[in-house]
Amino acid sequence: MDFDLNEELQAIQQAAREFAEKEVAPTVDKDDREHRYRKDLVQKMGELGFFGCVIPEEYEGTDSGFVSLVVITEELARIHSSLRVAMNMQIGPARTIVEYGNEEQKKRFVPKIVTAEWISCFAITEPDAGSDVAAMRTRATLEGDHYVLNGSKTWISNAQVADVALVYAYTDPGKKHHGMSAFMVEMHQPGVSSKPLTEKLGSNASPTGELFFDNCKVPKENLIGKEGEGFKICMAELNHTRLSCGAGAVGVARACREASVSYANQRVQFGQKIGEFQMIQDMIAQMVVQEDAARLLLYRAGTLKDQGRPNNLETSIAKYYAGEVVAYSSDCALKIYGAYGYSKDYPVERYFRDSRSYQIVEGSANIQKLIIAQDALGYRKANR
Ligand SMILES: Cc1cc2nc3c(=O)[nH]c(=O)nc-3n(C[C@H](O)[C@H](O)[C@H](O)COP(=O)(O)OP(=O)(O)OC[C@H]3O[C@@H](n4cnc5c(N)ncnc54)[C@H](O)[C@@H]3O)c2cc1C
Fold first, then answer.
1. What is the pTM of this model?
2. 121 Cα to the center of ligand 1, angstroms
């Protein structure tokens, strides 16, 4: 399984596995049932350097690379899918500032996000702008030394717990994709409010909410990149968070496969272990193959990122496939567990609920297929 991981990556994998098994697993069911956001665990992840893996050392990162991001995220999601969301919420903004921010912004924001002293989030989605990011309505108008931000965002992970947010808004709506800009917004200030969303299907320990900006003043110095670069920056951010999202999917798929193998070796029907039935073996075989294939696709995309080579296509392929794999594996796990899969006494119902997010977030399955097919057909090259 650990194909080609070097010693450094193996050590990182071991650290993430130990953390997940020793510190997350004991309370995972309770946290899920009670919808508890575990800031203490997120801060511990910061202390362990998980959020710094794609951040240079000068900003408190470890710079261990994108493959390590895949490795860490898989280990966390294997135990609790909600923690892979925490990874993306810190890494998305921090890495984006490293790539597009100026030196002052990197020093001001990145170390605090990487260490989880500040909880962060990124806010793209709006009630009428999901896959169609350019349909967003949030506006930022320059008035002297600050922008005035107005609008609302929805489905924002960490909305109600974040200290800072990377917010996308139009500075010049007439220019469409070239009129959007990216801002770091400090959340504890007048003009910013949040509201939790009603209960979700899964990812219960990851808070999700709406954000409202009502004449919120954002200093000019908090513009990330240049005015009009927001759409480009947003796509670059999603290209990275897509990778760790895929890794989360593989982590949950692995949990499904491990639980299924264990149960199929215990449950006896018709005088034999159900694992001895070929129809169960068919599901197990497919789970093993698909999990392996998804992981290798993620390693390829991560390796390309680490080498600084174009990777949009490979990242979309990996994210799309991992989302399909976790949906399939969680479906199989539920079938293999029979009635017990339908019970809250076993974790597979949680895996099933958590699995459904992976075909929606960070660009839906259809959006990934659009990118992949348009590239194949020559209509729009993904790696430009
Ligand atoms: C748990 C969770 C956490 C989230 N966290 C965040 C966050 O932190 N920040 C953030 O900004 N957003 C977040 N989101 C929002 C998420 O990014 C959006 O849900 C996603 O972009 C899809 O948008 P939508 O739900 O509006 O679906 P829609 O865009 O309305 O899509 C509905 C359906 O139509 C399909 N579709 C849409 N366009 C096309 C097309 N061109 N071709 C073919 N099919 C199409 C989609 O694939 C989907 O099947 C989160 C969502 C969830 C569920």
1. 0.97
2. 16
